């Protein structure tokens, strides 16, 4: 894709890990280059995640234009959208606040200016996290975490579960079952889980038994899907009996094995919210059920524990919430399956993509939040 003059040397490439971009154009702009693009829905009703490479040499500034912002999930506050970029031989860094541009017909775009680059520049909605990062976690904490395939995805990719112990049916050690990336583009959840698991590794024998599935929707992760409400079924709305996706069948079998090998204490499901939320980290409790008041009360108690461990630096107000948004699916989420089918307390943790108030979130912030969550849970078991 190219325009006049220098723009001919800049190409937009989605053929990168977790690649997602569409409707892209490259044109001249004020002595530099303008790259306009849209997040691809990849067959789902919602879009948000994008990730692509600008290949070539940009001798002038580059103006990035994200189009159709109002069609993205939670896309209403341009200055709250802060993508990350990575130059050749460099590391990821955040861009500044987006600048909204409303067209005469009401369409809303958001723009950023980036410095000239040589070779290429990677652009993503948030810090990517995939199998490479999981492998680094296991390697850097070895020999603490075992990595085992517990089955395959609908696309035939192995689903990896990390564990610090296998447990046994006679054990009374408290246990945690943890999942991230049911919605494949929600990378903050993975970074928080990364810090959570690193903290537990540092505790060594003092940690509970933990089974964790860091990349639940591995097909969506690898394909660059956003994954929220994607067809044929949102992974986090497929936990009914029978399950609506093969990944859920695999995960439900592993959840049952975990429950039989420990004293089940808590199920955690790490997510990220709408793209422009900046109020902080919060927890969704299972929807209330009169048949399970004890578990509902326990979920509220755990939410209070996590709010205290995160502290005002990270925790939103209010922290413990009950989902009240409309769903396209009538089938249960993981938290509801754990509470209603397995009688285990469960929480979904939502971590913003870019900022908490004026504080810009880094990978260290995500990991710090995860470590605080882990410390709070361990201290209360």
Quick gist of this model?
The protein is an alpha+beta fold. It contains seven helices and 20 strands.
Keywords, please?
disordered N terminus; 20 strands; 381 residues; 27% strand; 5-stranded antiparallel beta sheet; 7 helices; 2 domains; single chain; alpha+beta; Aminopeptidase; Immunoglobulin-like
CATH class of the largest domain: Alpha Beta
Strand order of the largest sheet: 11-12-14-13-15-18-16-17
Fraction in helix = 25-40%
Q: Report the radius of gyration as a whole number of Å.
A: 21 Å
Could you state the order of secondary-structure elements as H and E?
EEEEEEEEEEHEEEHEHHEEHEHEEEH
**Distinct helical segment count:** 7
Q: Which second-level CATH architecture of the largest domain applies?
A: 3-Layer(aba) Sandwich
The largest pleated sheet is described as:
8 strands, mixed
CATH topology of the largest domain: Aminopeptidase
pLDDT under 50 segments (min length 5)?
1-5
Distance between the termini: 56 Å
- Overall body shape: globular
Count structural domains.
2
| CATH H-level homologous superfamily name of the largest domain | Zn peptidases
Structural class by helix and strand composition:
alpha+beta
Strand content: 25-35%
Number of strands: 20
Mean pLDDT: 93
């Amino acid at each position: 894709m190219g325009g006049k003059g220098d723009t001919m040397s800049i190409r937009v490439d989605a053929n990168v890990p977790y690649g997602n971009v569409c409707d892209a154009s490259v044109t001249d702009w004020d002595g530099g280059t303008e790259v306009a693009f849209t997040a691809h829905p990849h067959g789902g009703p919602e879009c948000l995640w994008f990730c692509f490479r600008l290949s070539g040499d940009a001798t002038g500034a580059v103006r990035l234009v994200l189009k159709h912002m109002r069609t993205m999930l939670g896309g209403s506050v341009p200055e709250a959208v802060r993508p990350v970029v990575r130059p050749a031989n460099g590391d990821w860094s955040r861009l500044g606040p987006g600048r909204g541009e409303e067209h005469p017909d009401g369409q809303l775009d958001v723009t950023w200016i980036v410095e000239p680059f040589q070779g290429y520049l990677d652009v993503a909605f948030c810090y990517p996290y995939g199998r490479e990062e999981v492998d680094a976690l296991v390697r850097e904490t070895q020999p603490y975490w075992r990595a085992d395939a517990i089955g395959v995805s609908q696309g035939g990719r192995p689903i990896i579960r990390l564990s610090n112990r296998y447990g046994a049916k006679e054990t009374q050690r408290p246990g945690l079952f943890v999942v991230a990336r049911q919605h494949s583009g929600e990378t903050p959840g993975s970074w928080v889980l990364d810090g959570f698991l690193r903290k537990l590794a540092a505790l060594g024998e003092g940690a509970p038994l933990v089974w964790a599935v860091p990349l639940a929707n591995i097909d969506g992760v690898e394909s660059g899907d956003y994954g929220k409400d994607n067809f044929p079924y949102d992974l986090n709305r497929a936990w009914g009996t029978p399950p609506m996706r093969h990944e859920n069948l695999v995960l439900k079998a592993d959840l049952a094995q975990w429950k039989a090998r420990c004293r089940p204490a808590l199920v955690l499901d790490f997510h990220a919210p709408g793209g422009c939320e900046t109020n902080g980290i919060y927890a969704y409790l299972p929807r209330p059920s009169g048949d399970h008041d004890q578990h509902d009360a326990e979920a509220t108690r755990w939410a209070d524990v996590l709010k205290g461990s995160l502290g005002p630096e990270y925790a939103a107000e209010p922290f413990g919430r009950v989902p009240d948004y409309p769903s396209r699916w009538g089938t249960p989420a993981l938290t509801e399956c754990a509470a209603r089918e397995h009688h285990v307390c469960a929480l979904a943790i939502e971590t913003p993509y870019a900022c908490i108030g004026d504080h810009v979130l880094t990978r260290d912030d995500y990991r710090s939040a995860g470590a605080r969550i882990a410390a709070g849970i361990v201290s209360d078991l």
